[in-house]
Amino acid sequence: MTRRKQFKKARLNWRKSRGVRRSLGWIPINTGQAKWKNGQVFHNGHYFSVWDSFGLSDYKFRSASFNEDSRGRWYFNVVVDLEPETSEGTQSVGIDLGFKESATDSNGNGVTGLEYRMLEQKLGIAQRANNKKRAKAIHAKIKNRRQDALHKYSRKLVNENAVIFVGNVSSQAMVKTKKAKSALDAGWGLLKTMLSCKCDHAGVVFEIVNEAYSTQTCSCCGVIPDSSPKGRPGLGIRGGRLGNGSVQSAELNISVT
Question: pLDDT tens digit string along 68-118?
């Protein structure tokens, strides 16, 4: 009541249930207060039907929460105990981050990305028609496509390699430039987060390396000679060489119907 009078508002933003600035729903659940029962999530005397794509009956629930997204859909997020699976990969790989291709590795594989660019025209049509529901659905599709592609790519890298290197290119640094839209669409930060988490669980070495002067530094002695290639004219002669039991936690995200 004091804050409402202070800001001269009927209700504060974080308590709004309607409008563009409403707060999304979030219901925390203490450890052991939710469990899998009769093919459903059981909490506080109520059953909640979920799309179970993880086989929740095989896990013991720890802390959890119900979360709402921008489209009004609810998800059940739960922390469970699992045994980590060690990667059998023996190779090493380096990943180059970019705009045209979100990621390209030294084995010739990668992720195209550009999910926002592919649906940008449809999104613009929905926004000009003031169709907010359609615009939210397109934004969600872009996000889901990006996450799906990066999840599959990062999992493939972790399964096949013992050491993974990636450049320290930052999306946040690019936001201040004219390439902000392309940088955010590439999802570099999301890929690094996925690789860091999956490598940690699989026992794979993951390292973010500094890319500064990497195309000019000699791969043998580590010195930048006066004859090193510089600028666009030198791109044609540039080259590089790439050397060759405990219980952990995981968080699952399940849609509630």
Answer: 887 888 889 999 888 888 888 888 999 988 888 889 888 889 888 888 889
C-alpha 47, offset from chain centre? 30
Nearest Cα to 124, choosing from 202, 116, 115, 143?
116
Question: How far is residue 3 from each of residues 16, 23, 49, 189, measured CA to CA in Å?
Answer: 14, 17, 38, 37
Q: Is 146:187 a contact under the CB 8 Å cutoff?
A: yes
Whole-angstrom distance, CA of residue 138 vs CA of residue 120: 9
For 65, what's the count of Cα atoms within 13 Å in the CB-facing half-sphere? 9
> Helix 132-160 vs helix 115-128: angle between axes, to the nearest 10 degrees?
170
8 A C-beta contact, residue 224 and residue 215 = no
Cα separation of 117 and 186, whole Å? 10
Cα gap 227→155, rounded to integer Å: 40
Enter the tokens of residue 89.
């990969």
> Quick one: tokens of 22?
């409403």
CA separation (Å) from 249 to 131, 148, 197, 212? 40, 21, 11, 35
Q: Which residues contact 117 (CB under 8 A, 6 or more apart)?
A: 185
What is the b/e burial string over 80-110, where b = at least 16 CB atoms within 10 angstroms of the residue's CB? beeeeeebebeebbbbbbeeeebbbbeeeeb
Structure tokens at 117: 């660019």
The per-residue pLDDT for range 174-186, each reduced to its tens digit, is: 888 888 888 888 8
> Which among 104, 109, 85, 89 has a CA at the least distance from the CA of 206?
89
Q: From the centroid of its chain, how far is CA 94? A: 19
Of 238, 248, 192, 187, the closest CA to residue 217 belongs to 238
Sign of CA dihedral 131, 133, 135, 138: negative
